[in-house]
Write a structure and sequence with these properties.
about 160 residues, alpha+beta, eight-stranded mixed sheet, Aminopeptidase
């Protein structure tokens, strides 16, 4: 299913923006790392891609995590499209998302999440994909989950 964003002229673009559910065909046509995209689908992740015409702008993925919460598991905006409101638009198209992690050093993303109404919790931790420790902040969507429901995440914390 394709969702057309009507009357959405973000900053300088006047092209038609579409947000499309990611499927196998989209993985093949729009992703440089096609296999990673296909693997996300096989693992049950739900993704959406933002296009200007046929040009990919960014993508966002979600899945139910080990605590039963809907987690943003991947979120990427191509560099030339950053700071133009596209990330906010994609984030709004995952309205049931409850939690996400972002690296401590990713200040731009943190500002974007906070601007979109997400709240940084007091919890820090989690392993990255290569199992090396890095400082990750847990953000939550207060419209979908209460801070008191984040207690299970404490087991993922570690001291630095």
């Amino acid at each position: 299913m394709v969702y057309t964003v009507l009357d959405c002229f973000l900053k300088e673009t006047k092209d038609i923006l579409t947000i499309t559910k990611i499927d196998k065909e989209i993985c093949e046509k729009c992703f440089e790392n096609k296999q990673a995209c296909l693997n996300q689908l096989k693992e049950g992740h739900d993704g959406k891609i933002l296009l200007i015409g046929n040009t990919p702008v960014g993508n966002i993925w979600k899945n139910k995590n080990e605590f039963g919460h809907i987690e943003i598991t991947g979120f990427y905006i191509y560099e030339q499209f950053r700071r133009k409101g596209y990330g906010t638009l994609l984030l709004k198209n995952m309205p049931d998302a409850q939690v996400l992690y972002t690296q401590e050093t990713n200040k731009t993303a943190q500002k974007g999440y906070e601007k979109s109404g997400w709240v940084k919790s007091e919890l820090v931790g989690r392993f990255d994909a290569k199992h090396r420790r890095k400082r990750w902040f847990l953000y939550y969507n207060p419209k979908k989950i209460k801070a008191s429901e984040l207690t299970p995440y404490k087991k993922l914390e570690y001291d630095f």
